[in-house]
Amino acid sequence: MDDQYRDEDYSGYPEQQYDGYDGDYYPEEGGYPQDYGYEEPALEEPAAVRPEPKIELVDQDGIRAFELATLGWLVGFVALLPFWGLLNDRGWTWWIWTCLAAFGLGAIGIELTRRRKARRTHAEGQQL
């Protein structure tokens, strides 16, 4: 088996001596022998402390959100009623029924959130 890295294969090259301490890459004075154009990174100043904004909750219990969403579905239902014939011809009456079903579910949601708010305020009143 032939070794591809035998010394005889490199016999045409002159022998080079390397002394890591004599004539090394860095001069004794310190620094690099040539300027590469790099600068010292600038020191970052600490970021100014900003006061945290005070955000007040608009609707803590979600009743307003349920009311607005339910109202939106009711408006959609009423807006689609004049187009009943057109929607029926194309097979799109499910839009009307979707609006009506969402309005019904929203009305149930409004009632449930009102009951939850009443229970919570009653419980907080007893704890005080």
What does this molecule look like?
The chain is an all-alpha fold. It has helices at about 65-80, 85-90, 95-125. It has a domain at about 65-125. The longest helix is centred in the last third of the chain and has 34 residues, at about 95-125. It is flat.
Which short descriptors sum up this protein?
128 residues, 0% strand, flat
Layout of SSEs?
Layout: H1 63-80, H2 84-90, H3 94-127
Helix pairs in contact: 1-3
Structure annotation, total helices: 3
Shape: flat
Rounded mean pLDDT score:
79
Helical percentage: 40-55%
Q: Could you describe the largest sheet, including whether it forms a barrel?
A: none
Count the strands?
Answer: 0
**Strand portion, in percent?**
under 5%
Distance between the termini: 93 Å
Sheet/helix structural class: mainly alpha
Instruction: List low-confidence stretches.
Output: none
Specify Rg, calculated over alpha carbons.
40 Å
InterPro entries: DUF2530
Organism: Nocardioides albus
Keywords: Membrane, Transmembrane, Transmembrane helix
Transmembrane segments: 65-86, 92-110
